[in-house]
Structure formats: structure tokens, C-alpha cells
Automatic annotation (TrEMBL):
<protein>
    <recommendedName>
        <fullName>Guanylate kinase</fullName>
        <ecNumber>2.7.4.8</ecNumber>
    </recommendedName>
</protein>
<feature type="domain" description="Guanylate kinase-like">
    <location>
        <begin position="5"/>
        <end position="184"/>
    </location>
</feature>
<dbReference type="InterPro" id="IPR020590">
    <property type="entry name" value="Guanylate_kinase_CS"/>
</dbReference>
<dbReference type="GO" id="GO:0005524">
    <property type="term" value="F:ATP binding"/>
</dbReference>
<dbReference type="InterPro" id="IPR017665">
    <property type="entry name" value="Guanylate_kinase"/>
</dbReference>
<dbReference type="GO" id="GO:0005829">
    <property type="term" value="C:cytosol"/>
</dbReference>
<dbReference type="GO" id="GO:0004385">
    <property type="term" value="F:GMP kinase activity"/>
</dbReference>
<keyword id="KW-0547">Nucleotide-binding</keyword>
<dbReference type="Pfam" id="PF00625">
    <property type="entry name" value="Guanylate_kin"/>
</dbReference>
<keyword id="KW-0808">Transferase</keyword>
<dbReference type="InterPro" id="IPR008145">
    <property type="entry name" value="GK/Ca_channel_bsu"/>
</dbReference>
<keyword id="KW-0067">ATP-binding</keyword>
<keyword id="KW-0418">Kinase</keyword>
<dbReference type="InterPro" id="IPR027417">
    <property type="entry name" value="P-loop_NTPase"/>
</dbReference>
<dbReference type="InterPro" id="IPR008144">
    <property type="entry name" value="Guanylate_kin-like_dom"/>
</dbReference>
<keyword id="KW-0963">Cytoplasm</keyword>
<feature type="binding site">
    <location>
        <begin position="12"/>
        <end position="19"/>
    </location>
    <ligand>
        <name>ATP</name>
    </ligand>
</feature>
Length: 204
């Protein structure tokens, strides 16, 4: 099976701007597939089942784990989050850019599953107080949820050296242009090519 697409992973603290950046990227890369995760967390206002996440119950999620349906899964902020296998493999076979918004643990597991295809980007605000402002400004989470997310943020930022690229999202326009460069480079990785088939064509 030849997988000719590329994987782009976005991680970073909640509120850093991953969804905002993804929306910009989606306009420039029509041939992409956003990996829709499954989660047991409550739906936020404006979120749609099957678009932002597949919102499922804890029982359904645990059955999925037991049936081996997830490429990777993790418990984040007391909820389950996971990536289904089948659609990701199909999108890679169709030469697509497969975009993930997953946490640090998910990134490590994805890199293990697809080491040749994965490019990873860590997104963060310039500092913690700006993160707090943005989480408050988003207006989607209550105070206690925001406090949990802020508490987890420092640990997440400590994982930054595990990533290929860092985007400090101060100006959204600048951060978007950096992400577009990285997404284009993801398709130029030498490791995407299988040497044997490359040489067969090259020698013709
Ligand atoms: P994430 O997906 O990482 O949780 P969001 O994309 O939801 O983060 O962004 C969190 C909040 O910050 C949103 O209200 C968004 O509009 C805002 N935001 C994102 N990027 C910027 C930026 N560069 N400057 C100011 N506000 C931003
Ligand atoms: P949120 O609740 O803000 O949408 O997401 C919380 C965290 O869960 C974020 O760090 C996000 O990247 C992560 N996340 C979302 N989907 C997945 C997934 O499928 N797997 C893993 N490991 N993390 C995920």
C-alpha cells in the first residue's frame, strides 16, 4: 500500500489558536482532510457533530478502544479524545494533506504510526497571560474549565522540543503565513518517497 499524502499535526495549549489557523489553512488547501476526532467531552456552542468532533458517550468510546478502531487515543482534561484509523488511511491514499489537531501524547503516537509522513507543529501564544485572555475571550468555557486548561498549558509547552516547528501565534496573519509554508514543505519531505519505486522511475 502506497500512502502518498502528508500528515500535518497541530498541537498546543487550548486557546493558542489551532482552530483559527486551521480555518485559514483549509481555504488554501482544498485537497486536505481534517481528521475528525471522537470525544466524550460536552459539545460547545456552535460545534457540530461530525464536523468539529464526533461527540460520543464514554461507553461508545471504550468499545471503540476495545475494538481497535483508534489510531491513537488519550485522556485530556478528564475526557477521552481519539483518532479513527480508516478515514486517515484513505485520505493518505488519495494524496491529501491530512491535518490533525491533537494533544502532545497523540502527536507522539501518530509519529510512531506514520514516521515518514508526519510533520508536527506546536502552536502557542507568546505567554500565559495572553492565553488566559484568549480563553476568556472565546467565551466557550466556564471559569473552572479555563483554570484546568491553564494548569495543563505549562506541561504542554514543555513538550515543545518534540515538535518539528514552532509557531508563536501573536499576529494571526503572520502565524497563518508560517503555517502555509510548513504545510507546503510537508509534501517535500524526502522521507515521503519510497526509495525503490523512486529509483525505478528515475532510471527510466
Ligand atoms: P484553539 O483551537 O487552539 O483552542 P482557538 O483558535 O479557538 O484556539 O483560539 C482561541 C481564541 O483566540 C479564539 O477566540 C480566537 O478567535 C482567538 N485568537 C486566535 N488567534 C488569535 C490571534 N493571533 N490574536 C488574537 N486572538 C486570536
Ligand atoms: P478541545 O476540548 O479544546 O477541543 O481539545 C482539548 C485537547 O484535546 C486539545 O489539546 C486537542 O489538541 C486534543 N485533541 C483533540 N482531538 C484529539 C485526538 O483525537 N487525540 C488526541 N490525543 N488529542 C486530541
Amino acid at each position: 500500500m502506497k500512502l502518498k499524502g502528508a500528515i500535518l499535526v497541530l498541537s498546543g495549549p487550548s486557546g493558542a489558536g489551532k482552530s483559527s489557523l486551521y480555518k485559514k489553512l483549509a481555504q488554501e488547501f482544498p485537497n486536505h482532510y481534517f481528521s475528525i476526532s471522537s470525544t466524550t467531552r460536552q459539545k460547545r456552542e456552535g460545534e457540530i457533530h461530525g464536523v468539529h468532533y464526533n461527540f460520543i458517550s464514554k461507553d461508545e468510546f471504550e468499545a471503540g478502544i476495545n475494538n481497535g478502531e483508534f489510531l491513537e487515543w488519550a485522556r485530556v482534561h478528564n475526557n477521552y479524545y481519539g483518532t479513527s484509523k480508516a478515514q486517515v488511511i484513505q485520505a493518505l491514499e488519495e494524496d491529501k494533506l491530512v491535518v490533525f489537531d491533537i494533544d502532545v501524547q497523540g502527536q507522539i503516537n501518530l509519529k510512531k504510526a506514520f514516521p515518514r509522513h508526519t510533520t508536527s507543529v506546536f502552536v502557542t501564544t507568546p505567554n500565559k497571560s495572553i492565553l488566559q485572555e484568549r480563553l476568556g475571550g472565546r467565551g466557550s468555557d466556564g471559569d473552572s474549565v479555563i483554570q484546568t486548561r491553564l494548569k495543563n498549558a505549562l506541561d504542554e509547552v514543555k513538550s515543545l522540543p518534540n515538535y518539528d516547528y514552532l509557531i508563536i501565534n501573536e499576529s494571526l496573519d503572520e502565524a497563518t503565513s508560517k503555517l502555509l509554508c510548513i504545510a507546503r514543505s510537508a509534501f517535500c519531505k524526502a522521507s515521503l518517497y519510497e526509495l525503490e519505486s523512486f529509483l525505478q522511475n528515475w532510471e527510466k
